């Protein structure tokens, strides 16, 4: 044993010995994180090998930088680099636990949101998390105790060259094998999981940095010719209005109710014999309600902000980060501006502070007249939870603000209570939690019931006030509530195994549209958030043909029922495409690749590509539809408010207590 310790000390006191020891520790730790934390869809032997192999080149190249230093400084550099890489890995682990995605450079600009996460972050932490820094701790102990005690010399240049040649060779082998399994990996991939699966989390970070830099230069290089190409594409995909519905809501108010993290499986779902959302269930069956039961969210990293962006603009969120935080000064042709030029007053109501998701900045580019944020509400400790004001007091206090608006109005109410990790006070829970053993899944049903009760109270007010019969009411779920990290618990909820196919089907969110005077019913056509704006504008009697919109009217006979996901996957009534695998949407059984699937894939890729070009290149500055006046941001200011606002007693007073 003594001989072994002496030999180990000798090896670790050699620069290369210490370097190789650190590389092996870091390599194995990273692989363990891949296997335990990330759902990367490993499906064959090459992918299994690459998952194990890909951290090696990163470890050699990054930790190898420490060998440029002399003596003990080399060891200190190595520990610092190891620590920084460990922080990056752990940050991705925590981020993935909620978003099922990896951090991008644009998400780092969303730091204003981090302070509001509160209990959400705590719920994402695990007791074993310190193990992500175990190799760093070991290296520090070895150096601090002088068990690893280097000589004050510098590594020879030819040996340094050997390290970096080895690192580059390892990466080249890695990339070659990846390209053999996934051709054009770096040029046609929308899904970050692919890059991490094949090349690793650290190489992905470099790739993402390059992609972000390319996107930031795209605006400077864009010109009007780019817009011509986009317009030609959109002309070929335009869906003309359905005469049965066109203009049926002309002149009516518009009231959006944003159902936070609300998945469609909750509609008509019974937990222990009780309806989870009895009011929303009944509302979908209203004589004037169009309920779309095959409607999907299409959000990316921007989540809620992506949903808002699509509903206001009919353009996709970005593949990296959020449009709200990275493209807030772009030129847009948004719903508030389109309707504002037809006499509408627009407003957003939200029980969080205006800087969250950079809303106070981008709403000016959308043309919203008013933004009632947390500063307009009574944010007392009793009524605030998680991300902001609870839904019942939120609706209650929004009513007097709504009553100040000139009609017709275009409004949006953004709820918050039904948000991960779904905390709720015992006295406010009116249904028992589920019993899956997963606390987030179990309480999800309780916060969904609370949201349901909150919406009911608000609808009761609309009926009482007379607004109900002169308003189009649109309720929509913004994104999933339960990520695929909770598939085991969701399998118990749904009574079947939740695999990748079933998880894709769970990305349905409700779209509920009530139009007074229109015959309602369940609408089975497939669609997504990108389609809401053209559908709404056609109901209001505004043709969208000349606008730059990537969705199409859900009620149009020409609507193509292919729903693009932000990562390039898609779902249609016949086929669900997931990462190069294809399934029958009805049965979930695998199907062969066909010409129709190829055409649909191309359509999805084109829609995402052209939408990204418009946003990254700010191309709408080169095109103004006939009859539309470009938005002037300087006209909007959300800092002025009535300090002496009064509270009006409404039908919701009892509900809010």
UniProtKB/TrEMBL annotation:
Chain residues that bind Mn(2+): 260, 304, 478-479
Catalytic residues as annotated in Swiss-Prot or TrEMBL: 304
Binding residues for substrate: 419
Broad class of where this protein is predominantly found: membrane
A GO-annotated cellular component: plasma membrane
Parts of the chain that traverse the membrane: 12-29, 49-68, 75-98, 130-148, 160-178
Pfam family, one: Sulfatase
Keyword Membrane: yes
Protein topology in the membrane: Multi-pass membrane protein
GO molecular function: metal ion binding; phosphatidylglycerol-membrane-oligosaccharide glycerophosphotransferase activity
UniProt pathway: Cell wall biogenesis; lipoteichoic acid biosynthesis
This protein's UniProt keywords: Cell membrane, Manganese, Membrane, Metal-binding, Transferase, Transmembrane, Transmembrane helix
Keyword Metal-binding tagged: yes
Family, per entry: Belongs to the LTA synthase family.
Name listed for the protein in its UniProt record: Phosphoglycerol transferase
Higher taxonomy: Bacteria, Bacillati, Bacillota, Bacilli, Bacillales
